[in-house]
Amino acid sequence: MADARGAIQAVLSRFPHISVLKPEQEDALINFIQGKDVVALLPTGFGKSLIFQLAPLVAKELATRNGTELNPIVVVVSPLLALMEDQIMEAGKLGVSAAQLGVHEEQDILDGRFSLVFGSPESWLLNSKWRRMLSSAAYRDNILGVVVDEVHLTYKWGEVSTGETAFRESFAKLGELRSITKEGTPVLALTASADIKSRDRVTSLLHMDNAVHILASPNKTNIRLGLKNVPRYELDCLDWVVQLVKGKGSTMQPIIIYCQTMPKVGRVFAYLKAELQQHAWVDCDSDCKSENLLIGMFHSKTLPQHKDRVLASLRGEGNCRVVVATTALGMGLNFPNVSHVIMYGVPGDLESVIQQVGRAGRNGQSAHGIIYNMGQNYKAEKEVKELLNLGKTTCVRKVLFSHFEAEPCGVEPMHQCCTFCQTVCSCSSGTCTEPTPDYEQTQGKPVNLRSRHVTAEDKSLIVDMLNGYRDSLISPSAHLFTSPEACTGFSQKLVDSVLNNCQYIFDLPYILANIPVFRIEHAREVLQIISDVFGDVDTDQLEDEQSDAGERHTLPDLYYTGYYDEADDTDDPLSSHVTSSESEY
Question: Do 335 and 394 reside in the same domain of the chain?
Fold first, then answer.
């Protein structure tokens, strides 16, 4: 043990920016290089990746001290391409050679010339070439161990209820690596969010019968937890973000807004862009250059160059300050300066809540994790519904983290803990003078008092015109395999919403904020129909919106291929950048 700690210190002395490891990191590293299975449950932003990035260097240092030569290889199972790319880049900064299956020079990988070899579960288990490689002399003689990163996905993505198909079945079969690698090869399982009841499932799937368990509390006390109910389809709960961007521009700390589906990502992005108008660009850039855009989107279908812009900005090397994203953004990636994480809609399980909240405040400064609950959470697990209900009358933090540790603690002063605790905080002579955060206040957006009288005949005409527009979107010769609503995105819910709001519809921003439209063309047609029926819409405004304000209000298509100013130069820009793990995100 002393030799191992000495080797670690010798390795760390080469890196001025890493003076010491946290005790949990050091314990996990020592046990792993000594050939023991390790399950390390460490919070987001804790430095889990550093454990296996240092492992080859420490093992080689130990071998040198013992007068032997060693070319240690660590096999890393990783769920996402973006995560692999980020970790390979970080390993390179430490002088550790790293490669990704199917990307880097194949022969060098086969010959064992890289210290870290990354691949997806599917690559390691389903590709016969890589399976044979793990049994080759180069790997049997030099393999130090196997790392399963984001190990909670073994059961989250690899297992499903009877009669259903797993999202990525190979995750649940990673225990097969035991039979492919040499006997006694240790496994290091890493995650930030396996709850108490699921930890035995991890060790069972990976056959880790005698694993060393290392646990650090995921309860990051610098993050205040917000929980607020908001009306469905209404987006003005995000107006405080708009005001922050207008006031601070590129000087503000990054904000991530997570949505559960791609259409919601597009709708939130379009709302922010419509509300910000020219303020969506640094210094109101009149050329509207993409590199100066302060808001962005990220999910599996985002074009690579736009993903790169978002990721670079979150690392402090670009201008994007508000990112609207699915869960494709963030898993295992390190963004140190995120001030707010907003969950616009409730995640389906508590592990996702922990993952997303933990992406805020990694620099140790005060930060916020906010859940906007819009109801209808029928797909959410019962523990999530319990959090939403109990969070109204007790500490949100304690309810959330009770599923991850035996005795979760609150935060003092209580207004820094959570929404509920602020209501009972008495930090200042029996009361609390701390103002409620902007994201929990009733929005101060001026009410649009303009309205019109609408008759039954008006509504009947509106319905006929909306249905006529929807019919015009489908070719008469088309053979539909589903409903016209599904094919066009112009739903009956949209029609009903227009009827319920038609007395207030006078401009596009109102439509984008209050009507469930998924394409900007639909929003414009709704405004045109309202203008035709009532004749009181500013036609100059309508012409402006059609001609030169499209950039301000553009609601991107499903694949988000045209909302920046660069052209797409590839025939299939997604093929080399999207794995099966990302296809649903």
Answer: yes
